[in-house]
Amino acid sequence: MDRISAIRNVEDALREFEDGDADLAATERRVAAVLRTYATEFDGDGDVFRAVGDEPVDGTVVVAPSEPAARERVLAASGVDDGPGEADRPAFDLERF
């Protein structure tokens, strides 16, 4: 799914919600499915990585040009401080998604 298709699908989901044809839970599921499909079919300037490990990073999915960049993005997206205290950071591995 390309970016334009993903945006159109999200717009369709929002329109159905606004028109009363879908409730919030259904809209959330539909938008999440669009995003998941987009991420798994992503074909851009980077790869899609998923963190597997400790909370709060477990399951975080990011797009990055390399594993080191993906690690930084996972930590940032999870709200984990990327400061000097490596011992305080959650342990995780990355897998291509």
Provide a brief overview of the structure.
This protein is of the alpha+beta class and 97 residues long. The protein has three helices and three strands.
Based on the model shown, name its key terms.
single chain, alpha+beta, 3 helices, 16% strand, elongated
Helix content: 40-55%
Give the termini separation. 15 Å
Please state how the strands of the largest beta sheet are arranged side by side. 2-1-3
Please indicate the percent range of residues in DSSP E strands (runs of 2 or more).
15-25%
Number of strands: 3
The coarse overall form would be: elongated
Main sheet record: 3 strands, antiparallel
**Whole-number count of domains:** 2
- Rg measurement, Å: 16 Å
Q: List the uncertain runs.
A: none
Q: Strand pairing plus helix content: what structural class?
A: alpha+beta
Mean pLDDT: 89
Plain-language structure description:
Residues 86-97 have a biased composition (Basic and acidic residues). InterPro entries: DUF7854. Residues 77-97 are annotated as: Disordered. Pfam families: DUF7854. By secondary structure, the chain is of the alpha+beta class. Helices cover 45% and strands 16% of the residues. The chain contains 3 helices and 3 strands; from the N terminus they run H-H-E-E-H-E. The protein has helices at 3-18, 24-40, 67-77, and strands at 47-53, 61-64, 92-96. Strands 2-1-3 form a 3-stranded antiparallel sheet. The longest helix has 17 residues, at 24-40.
How do the helices and strands line up, and which of them pair or pack?
Elements: H1 3-18, H2 24-40, E1 47-53, E2 61-64, H3 67-77, E3 92-96
